[in-house]
């Protein structure tokens, strides 16, 4: 449903880049969950542009929670988070932008909303809206942490530079979570930043790959067909702007393998069932098997670049050349990673509540 | 919702490999749509194992439509298709299979259903159930064709052999639709079959990549956030067994590009808006832009192989070695392609009805 | 969603009066629930016309369960029940009935389905379809019984004759469940039957009021706003043909009271919280309070009567007079009661699974 | 889904009586609809307590729209309305109220939320939250008006005093909409107010019956089974606090009739199909027939009264006597009518968009 995701735990997001507030409503989260505003603020900080390799737009993200939380604890009813938009420079509000930026949603928004869409700063399609997703997801993620479920995402690849593989998941996740530029190998991260700055200096942008790992999810969650865990996670991930691909476990790599290489042998680890490899990313037949859930997403290069591009004016339906000005990111992959963490947390809260009831995260 | 997909057009599937029927209910499809049983039968034939590179299980798929269709035309109310299971060789029904086949759903089904799952022939997790999806999707696909919306899938890659790129989409789609082994380049197809047979001769299996193209979808369909067209399609595709990845347009390939390479320049083609390239696969900001929708899925190698594999017996919770016997496919990628066509058709019927109303496909 | 109801436990119904099968798919019911086919058959018998005060159509209701049940026990995956239509007398299939029966769905179906609806015997709008609801509900109801949740409905009023009030609920419910004509006071029941036969002899029909009581539902089920227990139950009840009203507890009677009369005082009964009266029908603020849930529905007189009625032919759009012939019920209230029981059971299974998880009814 | 209603047009509400904001998100409303803030303010005024027969709590309802509206027009994306809570007198926030008010949601909230619920001023269960529903519904209702669909509700009965029947619907609806105490017969209204004041003077409260009529809805809207128009409307109406019953057309009155009296004869009115009577309230088989939709709801007397009542303290689980103090309404039926108007508008927007597409109300 458009701007609402979830069945038992449902998140609704709203807002435009230059409106008064963006925000989210989280409905169905169990009562009695501690809501750590420092943690939410920290997550929002990690999403925020840092000025060097991101848009210089200042976003303070001074969110407030206006419903569903009393004395730092969830009440069990709908939680609403508001994030004011500050530092807005909309210019002439009355003039609709009608030159479509290539590979943006400008033209598709026009087809869907017939000119009534808010076009200021990307409107409802702005990456800015992901701040609401991050705030909502931060509450979910914190709740999951209390149940031993950890989520971590790193920039697996950016501008052709690759990070190292995950090693000890607990250690790696913990380290990642405090990093502004989330890589496991700092040297690789520095190379990525250099490559981003290089692209920026040329008026261009870069993309990348994000890898997320989720540990501690019990076996037996998810559904055999249409609500497979992969279905739910991918549904959510493709809601994040710029995501153009997702793969679980070995993903596209598994397509080139033989079954004898790809299959994950099962064995006992004490009284726990584990697999020796995790090529299926923790999911078999749509249902979790107790191993870490692993997936990667492809993040396209930021479509706004500072080079002339052929496009159309969809008001006059004539061809024109666009030379964008303003504040934009030469890369968003490092910022999207916290969105991916948050979005994953929302999916898991919903899936766990569907499986074990609405009090599960209490 | 588990076994139901869709909001305005909703498909429910049911059945087990060795039950009396598998089937589907399609609800919400417009009244007055011609239902071509020959076409459905043809689609089921394309999904059916052919004996050489597939399981020798004979599946006649003598489906019948028992509701929602009168005089070969949809009534507008729920359509139910039943497909009897024939040639069932269940052996001892009373003995629950408790040795988990690696990378199958055996163990996860146990975690979810606590031993009550039907384990005969894979039960509800059997690829057999996709016949129901194909039959339901065939009705949807036929309806879309009447509106000029065409869907085609080819085996882009299998066992390391690649098919050629799509060329003229109309021609290619039409050709693909009649092929048992859907490749654009027959020579590549022959190499794939050889590679599959080679793997089979070694008791092994192979995977592959499927590529789907959908033409004729109007611009302006889909939602900005949680019901992006990518979200809806990926949700559905990950319901198909063995799919472990999906990518739209350039997908993971776009992650290595710069914005200046990746962006799709827009121009006029007469009075129609088109893009010069289609790196975004026909979707911007979650909404269709009128260009062909293009996506690829990663199909893992069939997990059932004829080599000894380490696993556990989940009844005794002890380790054991599995040496599967029975009828199995060394590859399913060529059969999965018709499932992907059908599943795509269901998603589109739903998305179009949500956008334009329940009579749109009439 | 049209023909699907429920979030965690979802029921889909399908079929037409003169099609091959009607049926239902129950998805999401916990694994390990005993499925008693005798019980289902008994419920179907109670719904079946008995020939004296009902249509003489013979319905054997030889249902079969074709998925989701193995060895008499739910597997946890979608359960499909098929009920063949027998004794069908469709006459000329090719001739669409275009004279609208007043207060039937003939004309509204035409407006919605544009002439493609199956008009034979009422098609998808036939009360016949409720047999599928009864079969699906019977499985749910049996599952609830194992958890101590009992459901009973009596004909509170029919043709102006009233049954007595509920007394000892356990005793009354048990007695009701075996009765063909479910009244608490046999004498009242006999008067009702007489009144029905009198109406029938005049070519007319009668309506009535059904009262349902549900005991054993734990406190704390339901949602504060849009998914209140009253919302869920009423949503379902208005799906039953002929229901034109529903009221909980005192219902419309409470509208004339003062708060001091209407409020239910609360007290302890041992360590259990109870209310002295139950004017709110077991629900406060949309959420169960542990007291019996009580509601009544208004069932309109069967619209098919054997008297001339003014109406239109919606093909020619001209006025005409209808004099129905064929097999029809002079009353359906006594048959609808088992539908109401069954439908209630479906709602409760869904609400309980949403609250306590998918294994709750195991 | 708890606090979200609707499929194509979805409304989410949030907030607590003593939180910073209450509010609503309306998602899926067509782009290009004029949003008249004066109209919304007027609707909120009609819901507001007026001091004489209502709680003296001052509610200014200075709402603001923070997303989804630009230049007084819907953009087509999620609309968020915030209404600040003013004049809050929460007293000691730290002390949970644990004495359950009879027939309130206090005890059921405790069972569901385990003591974490916000108990200040009724929290999330407060009638205050209906202001959000009114604001959201006002936008929907205004949009419907532009399409010729009018909604009006009057106090059919209050404290035993009855209003007159509807006459000329257009005239009556127009008159009702400007009235603070919505009756068709002013003299009856005065008697009702007197009766309310009498009850108030005795520390007691009264209930009533609301009747809603909706004109201009096209025929063919709604679904045959689970999403009948009655199902959708009743689902929504039982979300309004204090509603304990709903009936369509003649409702419970039809249960005592014979078919020959109850059936609505159909005839032509020029080229329009109408029924001579409207005993079915504009709906047959769950689908609109083009006649006015008519329904009535039973509103229970405000449970908060100023008389001692037996109850329990659910913290100590001991019996006690409650003597409420504070600000409360001796009747809410006259305020609930605007909530009923608004809630009806939301349902209709959703049903129409499902039927005719998301641009229907544009």
Secondary structure elements and their pairing?
Four copies of one chain form a homotetramer.
Chain A (H helix, E strand, L loop, with lengths): L3 E2 L4 E5 L6 E7 L9 H11 L16 E4 L1 E2 L2 E2 L4 E6 L21 H8 L16 H17 L3 E9 L2 E2 L6 H9 L8 H16 L6 E8 L13 H9 L5 E6 L10 H4 L3 E4 L2 E4 L7 E2 L2 E2 L4 E7 L9 E5 L4 E5 L10 H24 L6
Antiparallel strand pairs in A: 1-2, 2-3, 3-7, 4-7, 5-6, 8-9, 8-10, 10-16, 11-16, 12-13, 14-15, 17-18
Helix pairs in contact in A: 1-3, 1-8, 3-8, 6-8
Greatest interface (CB-CB under 8 A), with counts per chain: C-D, 109 and 109 residues
Q: What is the CATH superfamily classification of chain A?
A: Chorismate synthase AroC
- Portion of residues within helices of chain A: 25-40%
**Structure annotation, total helices of chain A:** 8
Task: Using the CA coordinates, give the radius of gyration of chain A.
Answer: 21 Å
Oligomer: homotetramer
General form of chain A: globular
Structural class of chain A: alpha+beta
The topology string of helices and strands of chain A comes to EEEHEEEEHHEEHHEHEHEEEEEEEH
Output the CATH class name of chain A. Alpha Beta
Overall number of structural domains of chain A:
1
CATH-defined fold name of chain A:
Chorismate synthase, AroC fold
Tell me the distance between the termini of chain A: 27 Å
**Strand elements of chain A, count:** 18
Poorly predicted runs of chain A: none
Q: Do you know the CATH architecture of chain A?
A: 4-Layer Sandwich
Biggest sheet descriptor of chain A: 5 strands, antiparallel
């Amino acid at each position: 449903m458009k701007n609402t995701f979830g069945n038992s735990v449902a998140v609704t997001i709203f807002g435009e880049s230059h409106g008064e507030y963006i925000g989210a409503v989280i409905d169905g989260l169990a009562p009695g969950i501690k809501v750590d505003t420092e943690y939410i603020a920290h997550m929002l900080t990690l999403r925020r542009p840092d000025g060097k390799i991101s848009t210089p737009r200042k976003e303070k993200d001074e969110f407030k929670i206006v419903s569903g939380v009393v004395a730092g604890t969830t009440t069990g009813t709908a939680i609403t988070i508001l994030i004011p938009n500050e530092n807005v420079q909309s210019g002439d509000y009355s003039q609709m932008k009608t030159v479509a930026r290539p590979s943006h949603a400008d033209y598709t928004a026009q087809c869907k909303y017939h000119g009534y869409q808010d076009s200021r700063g990307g409107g409802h399609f702005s990456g800015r809206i992901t701040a609401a997703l991050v705030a909502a997801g931060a509450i979910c993620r914190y709740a999951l942490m209390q149940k031993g479920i950890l989520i971590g995402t790193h920039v697996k690849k950016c501008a052709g530079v690759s990070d190292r593989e995950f090693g000890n998941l607990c250690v790696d996740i913990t380290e990642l979570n405090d990093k502004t530029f989330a890589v496991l190998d700092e040297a690789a991260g520095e190379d990525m930043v250099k490559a981003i700055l290089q692209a920026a200096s040329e008026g261009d942008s870069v993309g990348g790959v994000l890898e997320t790992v989720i540990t501690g999810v019990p076996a037996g969650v998810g559904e055999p067909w249409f609500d497979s865990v992969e279905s739910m996670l991918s549904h959510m991930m493709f809601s994040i702007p710029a995501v153009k691909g997702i793969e679980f476990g070995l993903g596209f790599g598994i397509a080139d393998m033989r079954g004898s290489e790809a299959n994950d042998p099962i064995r006992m680890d004490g009284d726990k069932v584990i697999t020796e490899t995790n090529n299926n990313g923790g999911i078999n037949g749509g249902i979790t098997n107790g191993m870490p859930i692993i997936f990667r997403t492809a993040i396209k290069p930021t479509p706004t670049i500072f080079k002339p591009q052929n496009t159309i004016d969809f008001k006059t339906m004539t061809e024109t050349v666009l030379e964008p000005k303003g504040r934009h990111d030469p890369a968003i992959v490092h910022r999207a990673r916290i969105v991916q963490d948050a979005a994953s947390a929302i999916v898991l809260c919903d899936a766990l509540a569907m499986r074990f009831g609405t009090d599960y995260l209490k």
